[in-house]
Write a structure and sequence with these properties.
10 helices; 5-stranded antiparallel beta sheet; alpha+beta
Length: 297
């Protein structure tokens, strides 16, 4: 049986139990056949138990059973998906992939964003991360000459349709975009993963991929018109919150390190966002607008 077909069955079980709650095996089987998960074939207890074990290994989700009749099954730790973003992202990706796979007739009506480069290097990077081996990278920043980097890879991150690898280059923890990698291979040098390194905590104060030590700031931005709902439903940073509202605007507060990534996100909303504080960031944003306007003048 093809792995994609098996993954589709795992995802169906997880999503069905998350959506409907407690279900007996007969209820699951009835819905399984109605949804033609396995071509209309029944869900046997053996298959169900095998899938339960695989779902625990893959997503960390426990499919438990009630202790008394009618012995219905349920996911006893749904909060695991909130706590672990990788598993949540994996479940979301597999769910969408399953829907797209079952909608082949609509392939020309389903539009996705391309990730221009990087996926082909991920397997090599993961191999180095699993075995704590350094990467030997030929890297070329935009507008610069290529140079060699020996990197102890700590983590990978997807941001704005680009994959990045984060690690120790011998001088500091740095980030490298995979679309600027000329060549990459697993080297012979080993490294010890720092026990205190937490990739999520490393980026927690930043909005984006740049982690350059910019000081933490309390940022307040006044957002106007349609952009209020846009930011409300798609926050720029996990610290984002609304602290005041008025006629046609809302004031958003952030506790963030305002790097170029964060500034670019603010500018993306053009005249609908006005930085109120700190004054230093307001000055930077105003200068960016003046530079843009001068090009038109």
């Amino acid at each position: 049986m093809k792995p994609a077909f098996i993954f589709h069955q795992y995802v169906w079980l997880v999503n069905t139990l998350l959506r409907r709650g407690h279900m007996s095996l007969s209820d699951l089987d009835e819905q399984w056949r109605a949804d033609e998960v396995a071509g209309g074939n029944p869900l046997s207890r053996t298959t169900f138990n095998r899938h339960r074990d695989a779902i625990l290994d893959m997503f960390g989700l426990i499919i438990d059973c009630e202790k008394t009749a009618p012995y219905r099954y349920y996911i006893s730790n749904p909060e695991e998906l909130d706590a672990n973003r990788v598993e949540r992202w994996m479940l979301s990706t597999l769910t969408v992939g399953g829907m797209l796979g079952s909608s082949a007739a609509l392939h020309d009506r389903i539009l996705l964003e391309d990730v221009p480069a990087g996926e082909s290097l991920l397997e090599t990077i993961m191999q180095a991360m699993r075995h704590n081996r350094c990467l030997e990278i030929e890297y070329q920043r935009f507008g610069c000459e290529p140079h060699h980097v020996t990197l102890a890879p700590f983590a990978v991150k997807l941001y704005q349709r680009r994959w990045y690898v984060v690690g120790d280059n011998g001088e500091k923890i740095a980030t490298y975009s995979l679309d600027r990698v000329q060549s990459l291979e697993v080297g012979s040098d080993e490294f010890t993963m720092p026990a205190d390194f937490d990739a999520r905590a490393f980026f927690a104060d930043y909005s984006g991929i740049i982690a350059d030590g910019t000081p933490l700031e309390h940022v307040v931005a006044r957002v106007y018109g349609w952009a209020v709902n846009y930011l409300r439903t798609l926050p720029l940073h996990h610290s984002q919150r609304i602290i005041a509202t008025g006629d046609g605007y809302a004031d958003f507060a952030f506790d963030v390190r305002p790097t170029l990534d964060f500034i670019d996100e603010l500018l993306r909303h053009d005249a609908n966002v006005e930085v109120l504080e700190p004054q230093s960031l307001r000055t930077i944003v105003a200068a960016r607008y003046r530079t843009a306007l001068s090009r038109y003048n």
